């Protein structure tokens, strides 16, 4: 293990769950293996915790909530600031952990750690800005004030594609608001969550406030225990729409507050008046970051017929410069996909497109000389809307380009989707920018930008992409309830 990660601080490598401020094995003694997707090498064995373990974590969070919910906003702010500072001080080690268990190149992993720490910094500042208001009434003798209170114990279910940032984006506002948490770490990438728990402890976050449960085999059981527990008052989940629907159903028995960030099918639109060079750069960032394994990745590219060839040429030139390989190698720009199931899905999308008349101009193949999880960054031309990749979330390094003629045509095409997480478009017409941004039926729009996520910006979707917002000042509201107090004077 040491020869793979080469951590400066080996104490960040944890292989036990973190419950009530203690490092714990599963009560059953069972473990599961964590593998490097680049090499298939087993790098750790973590506790395969079940409902017995998660009940203990929930009870620990309940006990901690009594005092933590009454703690001062300034003390919570200080904890989050210290946690962020420790993350940045240990950025290289954390990045190596992310790369080894997730596969993304070190440069991207370093960026994720900085991004993750930024959520803690943002919510450290928001903690001291949780405010109520005074309300005028129609009764002269009444005075009404409102206060925001912590919702209580929160269950946080996070994905593998951003193993650090998706935790801090949820735990940051929860702790800032005075809530205790139970994190169900992703089975593919539990080591990052456990390293964050170690740093949370060093930052002075009390035992029981930030609990981490690790599991693989018992994921459905653990999720059901969290969602049906009457102690847990809030669920935040990032993942597929299918699982989100199931969690909603399970949570209905206890009427929980929920935030769901689910699947996406983000269009990337290039109009005839776009800055093509900027559009290509934005497409590269949006589509190929994390090898296409993000919920806000551009899924299908829609390019106006008059600029189709220029845009395609520019994109192809950039993609040909990519270096696919092990994320620990300094020259690697794109790492492996998370597992072979992901590779199979991208391969299926490529084959379907070819059968329906598309042309693969770059990539399109598995790279067996590197390993079964490596897939070439791919560009497909002459794509049409009957192809599978235009209708399903790809979650891989495949960029398919569809041509269009009119604004009405492309808006009708993209708004037909049942998903509504993000969308991107490029245009230099300010009237069009406002018009299209308002008409796109999504929660986030990038106008002449391939990036929509920032701690200051509300993150979330509409339709089957979920509800609730993360990040921003709205993000902390998701972890509070409003109490009104009426005085007679």
Automatic annotation (TrEMBL):
Pfam family, one: Aldedh
Source species: Aaosphaeria arxii CBS 175.79
Annotated PROSITE patterns: ALDEHYDE_DEHYDR_CYS, ALDEHYDE_DEHYDR_GLU
Protein's UniProt name: Succinate-semialdehyde dehydrogenase
EC number(s) per entry: 1.2.1.16
Listed GO MF terms: aldehyde dehydrogenase [NAD(P)+] activity; succinate-semialdehyde dehydrogenase (NAD+) activity
Example GO biological process: gamma-aminobutyric acid catabolic process
Pathway entry: Amino-acid degradation; 4-aminobutanoate degradation
Catalytic residues in the record: 261
Family as reported in the entry's similarity comment: Belongs to the aldehyde dehydrogenase family.
GO CC annotation: cytoplasm
Enzyme class at the top of the EC tree: oxidoreductase
Entry-linked CDD domains: ALDH_F5_SSADH_GabD
Keywords tagged on the record: Oxidoreductase
Domain of life of the native organism: Eukaryota
Catalytic activity, as annotated: succinate semialdehyde + NAD(+) + H2O = succinate + NADH + 2 H(+); succinate semialdehyde + NADP(+) + H2O = succinate + NADPH + 2 H(+)
Record domain Aldehyde dehydrogenase: where: 23-485
């Amino acid at each position: 293990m040491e020869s793979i990660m080469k951590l400066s601080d080996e104490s960040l490598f944890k292989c036990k769950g973190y419950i009530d401020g203690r490092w714990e094995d599963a009560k059953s003694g069972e473990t599961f293996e964590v593998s490097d997707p680049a090499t298939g090498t087993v790098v750790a064995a973590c506790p395969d915790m079940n409902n017995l373990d998660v009940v203990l974590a929930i009870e620990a969070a309940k006990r901690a909530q009594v005092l933590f919910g009454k703690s001062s906003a300034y003390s919570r702010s200080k904890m989050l600031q210290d946690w962020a500072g420790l993350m940045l001080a240990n950025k290289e080690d954390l990045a190596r952990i992310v790369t080894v268990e997730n596969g993304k190149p070190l440069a991207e992993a370093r960026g994720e750690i900085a991004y993750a720490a930024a959520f803690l910094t943002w919510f450290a500042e928001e903690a001291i800005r949780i405010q109520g208001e005074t309300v005028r009434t129609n009764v002269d003798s009444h005075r009404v004030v409102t206060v925001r209170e912590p919702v209580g114990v929160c269950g946080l279910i996070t994905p593998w594609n951003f193993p650090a940032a998706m935790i801090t984006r949820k735990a940051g506002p929860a702790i800032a608001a005075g809530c205790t948490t139970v994190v169900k770490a992703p089975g593919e990438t539990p080591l990052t969550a456990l390293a964050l728990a170690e740093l949370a402890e060093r930052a002075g976050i009390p035992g029981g406030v930030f609990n981490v449960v690790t599991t693989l085999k018992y994921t459905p059981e653990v999720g059901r225990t969290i969602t049906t527990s009457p102690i847990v008052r809030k669920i935040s989940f990032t993942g597929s729409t299918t699982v989100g629907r199931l969690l909603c159903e399970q949570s209905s028995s206890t009427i929980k507050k929920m935030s769901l960030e689910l699947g996406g099918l983000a269009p990337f639109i290039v109009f005839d008046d776009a800055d093509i060079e900027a559009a290509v750069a934005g497409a590269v960032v949006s589509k190929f970051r994390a090898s296409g394994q993000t919920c806000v990745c551009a899924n299908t590219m829609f390019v106006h017929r008059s600029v189709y060839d220029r845009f395609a040429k520019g994109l192809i030139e950039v993609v040909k410069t990519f270096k696919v390989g092990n994320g620990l190698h300094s020259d690697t720009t794109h790492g492996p996909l998370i597992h072979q199931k992901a590779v199979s899905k991208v391969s299926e999308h490529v084959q379907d497109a070819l059968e329906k008349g598309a042309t693969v101009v770059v990539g399109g193949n598995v790279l067996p000389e590197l390993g079964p999880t490596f897939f070439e960054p791919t560009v497909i031309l002459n794509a049409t809307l009957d192809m599978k990749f235009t209708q399903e979330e790809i979650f891989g390094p495949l960029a398919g380009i569809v041509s269009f003629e009119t604004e009405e045509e492309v808006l009708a095409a993209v708004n037909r989707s049942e998903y509504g997480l993000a969308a991107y478009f490029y245009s230099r017409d300010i009237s069009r920018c406002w018009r299209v941004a308002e008409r796109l039926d999504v929660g986030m729009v990038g106008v002449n930008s391939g990036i929509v996520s920032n701690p200051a910006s509300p993150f979330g979707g509409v339709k089957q992409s979920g509800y609730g917002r993360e990040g921003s000042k709205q993000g902390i509201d998701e972890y509070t309830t409003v109490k009104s107090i009426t005085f007679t004077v």
